[in-house]
Design a protein that fits this description.
4 helices; 20-stranded mixed sheet; mainly beta; two-stranded antiparallel sheet; 11% helix; 311 residues
C-alpha cells in the first residue's frame, strides 16, 4: 500500500511540472463565461464551492453552494468598486468598497456590515499609503472601543514586497518590531513567505487569473494587498486557515506548482497544483490538492477543482 501511495504522489508531482503537455483541442468559443470552483473537504463538496459569472469578460456575480452570492460593481476605470454580499433570501449582509489612487493602486478597503448580518460587528477598514520604498498599511476596527494595527511593507527595486513589519498598535509605534515576515523571490517568483515556507513554480506564466479583470494593470499587487489579513475567513478548515489563502497570492511571474509549510511545530501543510489548457493557450482547469498532517496522521484533505468555461 505504501508503494502505491508513493507512486501516486510521484505522479501528482510530475503533473505539476509538466503542465504545458496538458493541452486539449479548443472549441470556437474564446470569451470567458464562467469559472466553477469546487471545494472538496475530506471527499465531500463544501459550501465554499462557487460559480463565477462573467459579463463582457468582467466578474458580475459569484454564487456559492449555500445560496449566498456576491454582486460586483465597477468604477469608470473598470476597477472593482464594491462587492455586495447577499444571503440566500436576497438580503444584503455587507458591502465591501474599494478605493484607488490615480495609478490604479488600492488605497482603501472598507467593509460595512448590515444588521441583517450582525448586530455587533462594526465597520472594518484597511488603508494603504504609498511611498518610494514602502507601503504603510493600517487595519482599523471602529467599534465601540476603536483599535488599529499598523504595518510597514518594504519594497525592492522592482516594487515587490520583501518584508512585512508590524510597527504599531493604535497610536503607539513600537520601539522594537514584535512581528516581521520576509518575502523571498527567485526569478520574479515568491519562493518563501517566511523562513520555513517552500513555494515552487512551473514554467507557465501567471497570466490567467480573473483577478486582473477586477484590479486592472496593478492586479497582482492589489490582489496581494486585498488578501493580507483578510477580515472574512476564506479557508475551509480551522487547522490551516492562513495557508489556504496565502497560496492564492498572485504576485509571482509563474503559476504555482507546490507549497509546503510546517505550522505550530506539529502540523504539516502541503499543496500541489496542476493545470490544463486548450490549444489556444486558454486555461481550462486547475486542480489544487491540500493536505494537513500531524506526524503520520491525516488531519484534513482538501481538493480545489477550478473549471473555466468559454462562449
Amino acid at each position: 500500500m505504501k508503494k502505491i501511495i508513493s507512486l501516486l504522489i510521484a505522479l501528482l508531482i510530475v503533473s505539476c511540472t509538466n503542465d504545458s503537455d496538458n493541452v486539449v483541442p479548443a472549441n470556437k468559443n474564446t470569451t470567458l463565461s464562467t469559472i466553477t470552483k469546487n471545494y472538496y473537504l475530506n471527499g465531500n463538496l463544501n459550501h465554499k464551492s462557487s460559480k463565477i459569472y462573467f459579463i463582457n469578460e468582467k466578474v458580475s456575480v459569484v454564487r456559492f453552494l449555500d445560496g449566498t452570492y456576491d454582486d460586483y460593481k465597477y468604477n469608470s476605470d473598470n476597477l472593482v468598486s464594491s462587492i455586495l454580499k447577499y444571503n440566500s433570501a436576497n438580503t444584503l449582509l455587507f458591502t465591501t468598497n474599494y478605493s484607488y489612487d490615480n495609478l490604479d493602486r488600492i488605497t482603501k478597503i472598507e467593509e460595512i456590515p448590515t444588521t441583517s448580518y450582525s448586530v455587533t460587528q462594526k465597520v472594518k477598514i484597511r488603508n494603504f499609503a504609498y511611498y518610494q520604498n514602502k507601503i504603510v498599511f493600517i487595519r482599523e476596527f471602529p467599534s465601540q472601543e476603536f483599535y488599529s494595527y499598523t504595518y510597514e511593507l518594504l519594497l525592492d527595486n522592482n516594487n515587490k514586497i520583501i518584508k512585512n513589519n508590524w510597527i504599531g498598535y493604535n497610536e503607539v509605534v513600537f520601539s522594537n518590531i514584535p512581528s516581521s515576515y520576509e518575502y523571498i523571490y527567485t526569478n520574479g517568483n515568491l519562493t518563501s513567505a517566511n523562513i520555513d515556507d517552500e513555494i515552487s513554480y512551473n514554467d507557465l506564466k501567471n497570466d490567467y487569473s480573473y483577478k486582473k479583470t477586477l484590479f486592472g494593470k496593478e492586479w497582482k499587487q492589489n490582489s496581494f494587498l486585498a488578501n493580507l489579513y483578510p477580515d472574512n475567513e476564506k479557508s475551509i478548515t480551522s487547522y490551516s486557515s492562513y495557508y489556504y489563502w496565502i497560496t492564492e497570492i498572485e504576485i509571482s511571474e509563474n503559476l504555482i506548482s507546490a507549497y509546503k509549510k510546517k505550522y505550530l511545530e506539529q502540523f504539516n501543510f502541503n499543496m500541489t497544483a496542476s493545470y490544463e489548457f486548450n490549444d489556444k493557450k486558454q486555461i481550462l482547469k486547475e486542480i489544487k490538492n491540500y493536505k494537513v498532517t500531524t506526524g503520520n496522521d491525516m488531519m484534513d484533505s482538501v481538493k480545489l477543482e477550478i473549471i473555466y468555461d468559454y462562449q
